[in-house]
Write a structure and sequence with these properties.
alpha/beta, 4-stranded parallel sheet, 4 helices
Amino acid sequence: MAMPSRAQSFRFLDDPNAYREPAAFVVRLPSGVAGKSELLNLLYERLILPGYFGFNWDALSDCLRDFHWIREVQVALIHEDLPQLPEEDLRIYLSVLAHAVLDWNRSDEHALEIVFPEAARATINRLFR
């Protein structure tokens, strides 16, 4: 999966915990998420992903483009920090997120917002190059 050209699909805040959007379905991922398995398990639980979720990047990509189980139009995934993943896995994860945001930009059904701390911007921009 090719990376979108820029990290423009993400929002960067000095304090992601300050994010408030009362009408949104907000999912917060804590700092210290270590490894792909922990990340996918947290996303499964907190996004209330369907039981058929396959706990891999392709399954995450599919589910982030569906959201039929979420009533709210706005869906926000707030990261307190970048997950602690090997660089290639982090690149794949960011690509999955960016592509999902871009897909929802063409839809009226849902809007997906991905938030990272400002401190993660340089790393994300480097990985998108």
